[in-house]
Design goal:
Largest sheet: 7 strands, parallel
Strand order of the largest sheet: 3-4-2-5-6-1-12
CATH architecture of the largest domain: 3-Layer(aba) Sandwich
Shape: globular
Number of domains: 4
CATH topology of the largest domain: Rossmann fold
Number of helices: 18
Structural class: alpha/beta
CATH superfamily of the largest domain: P-loop containing nucleotide triphosphate hydrolases
Number of strands: 22
CATH class of the largest domain: Alpha Beta
Length: 556
């Protein structure tokens, strides 16, 4: 196991910066190989032991396995392990367990010279730094931005900043808020390869995006604690988004994860799938009755057309390369959360042929944040140069009158501060929207060279390559929402065969001319007829039941 050239470049850059800096932040997209990269750094580090900190069991296990694979000795620090031997080069620690052990014994881990923080944007780790004042610190994240706000006051005359409201230059200072930046913890940011470059280098697969337009985000309220939309204001809309209808129109039969806004909308979407006849669906959140996380993930991994609904559970520490579709049944103000959710689908996979993955955005997130594969100026997020402080306004005019005692009080108060009366919460009747997300990307045409490369990697023959080509062409019909009427018209006016022959021109030459086994000569007419036969069966089954869960790729 060796680092890729771009990973080696980043490793060298990080180690070079440690000559003059103590606390560094490294950014690399999800799927770019962060675990492998910082494992190689741990192996190279010779100025003491290395402490790697994560927050999920999956990340602990993945990191320990990677370290051992490249020859680094490891001890894990988890709740179930009560004693350490201190005879390994690296510790891999669960953050909460480590905090508890250090509070009881501040010398619990010995000779730590380098601390590596995984998923640094979660802001869970800073308090452990005080135990190792001389250690180098490398924080790693795909998304170096947070929603945390910092409040301060500033004099309008001399611009002096104060931590509280005071008199300055004869005037009372005015309150402002600004976004907290990770440059307040770390000295410098080092950037790895961007998503677009990793896609170009065939290390990630590209996103194909579908969006619901015209979402009024101004109608959603913001939770002052989280900085994101509160669930009360999002439940009404995201209980109406037709998750099942969009899945059937765009991603039927593909392994899919759905991110919902709350446990309530998670259950609504789950029941909608069950009512539509789907058995291959599970939900997972902290409220509804669900199976344990490990069991759910095992089911998801082993079920080809699985549909998994969740609320903020599988954004980090979750790696399933066979995932083919991400549905956002929610809105978020967090760029980090958006990229983490969508990034679950970007990993390459050899278990299935996966040239791209689908994103169905029901929450206006792409309109707000851009597409997952767009270039992002991470330095401006790190240093805070992309945002100006905003005056902190108190919504004093937002009031209501208590129906019990008549006193005027803030509109957002849960109960009357005078008499304690609390108005009953009105249940909103949810009316399902029938709107289907619109394709906003050009769908990539089948690539024969990549199909052949994939078949070589997994040891499949030429017949398997032809099957992949057929399925990819049929995917084009589904993703472009080609109706039965449009399909039949193309047959009648003879445009169908012309289109298919144009699409298969390069793939046909690449597959037919390859050295794959199973070298029976196939004509272009044979490919066209195979595609037509599968499409006929698909449209026949689809017209019989619009709720059918038939996987198109199973039609032979």
């Amino acid at each position: 196991m060796k680092p890729y050239p771009d990973q080696q470049k980043s490793i060298d850059e990080i180690l070079d910066h440690f000559q003059t800096k103590q606390k560094l932040l490294f950014q690399l997209p999800t799927g770019g190989g962060k675990t492998a990269l910082f494992s190689f750094i741990a192996k190279k580090f010779k100025e003491g032991k290395v402490l790697i900190v994560a927050h999920r069991d999956e990340l602990i296990n993945q990191t320990a396995t990677t370290l051992r694979t490249i020859g680094v000795t490891v001890e894990t620090v988890v709740a179930s392990k009560k004693k350490l031997h201190h005879n390994s080069h690296a510790y891999v620690a669960m953050i909460q367990t480590l905090k508890n052990r250090l509070k009881s014994d501040d010398s619990f881990l010995k000779d730590v010279g380098l601390i590596i923080i995984d998923e640094a944007h979660l802001l869970m780790h800073e308090e452990i730094f005080k135990y190792y004042p001389n250690a180098k610190i490398l924080a790693v994240t795909a998304t170096p931005t947070v929603l945390k706000k910092v409040n301060f006051t500033k004099c309008s005359i001399c611009s002096t900043v104060h931590s509280e409201v005071v008199q300055c230059c004869g005037y009372e200072t005015y309150e402002y808020s600004r976004r907290f930046t990770l440059s307040e913890i770390y000295e410098e940011i080092i950037l790895g390869s961007p998503i677009s470059q990793l896609i170009y280098n065939d290390r990630l697969v590209r996103d194909v995006n579908y969006e619901i337009g015209g979402i009024d985000r101004n109608a959603l309220t913001i939770d002052a604690k989280t900085g994101d939309y509160d669930t009360k204001s999002t439940d009404e809309y995201f209980g109406q988004f037709d998750v099942v209808g969009n899945y059937e129109a765009i991603a039927r039969g593909k392994k899919t994860i759905v991110f919902c806004s709350s446990a309530k909308t998670n259950l609504i979407a789950y029941n909608a799938f069950k009512d539509a006849g789907y058995e291959n669906v599970k939900l997972f959140d902290s409220v509804n009755d669900t199976e344990n996380r490990k069991k759910v993930l095992e089911w998801f991994k082993n079920t080809p057309d699985a549909i998994l609904l969740n609320v903020n559970c599988f954004t980090t520490g979750f790696d399933e390369p066979t995932l083919e579709c991400v549905i956002l049944n929610r809105a978020t103000l967090s760029l980090s959360l958006f990229l983490q959710m969508v990034g679950r689908g970007g990993r390459k996979c050899d278990e299935i042929y996966k040239p791209s993955f689908i994103v169905i955005d029901g929450g206006g997130n792409i309109e707000t944040h851009g597409k997952w594969s767009d270039e992002i100026d991470w330095e401006s997020h790190f240093y805070g140069t992309n945002e100006k402080p905003k005056p902190k306004k108190e919504a004093l005019e937002q009031v209501k009158q208590c129906v019990e005692c008549g006193i005027i009080h803030p509109k957002n108060a849960v109960e009357c501060p005078s008499c304690g009366f609390s108005e009953p919460i009105k249940e909103v009747e949810l009316k399902l929207s029938k709107e289907i997300a619109v394709l906003t990307d050009e769908i990539p045409l089948p690539n024969g060279k990549k199909i052949v490369e994939y078949c070589v990697r997994i040891g499949k023959d030429k017949n398997f390559a032809w099957l992949i080509l057929q399925n990819q062409i049929i995917d084009l019909f589904i993703r472009h929402s080609v109706t039965l009427g449009m399909y039949q018209k193309s047959i009648r006016n003879e445009k169908f065969e012309q289109s298919i022959r144009r699409i298969i021109k390069e793939p046909y030459q690449s597959i037919q001319g390859s050295t794959l086994e199973g070298g029976t000569m196939r004509t272009k007419a044979w490919v066209v007829n195979k595609v037509k036969t599968k499409l006929d069966k698909y449209y026949e089954s689809h017209s019989r039941s619009s709720n059918s869960a038939t996987n198109l790729h199973s039609v032979q």
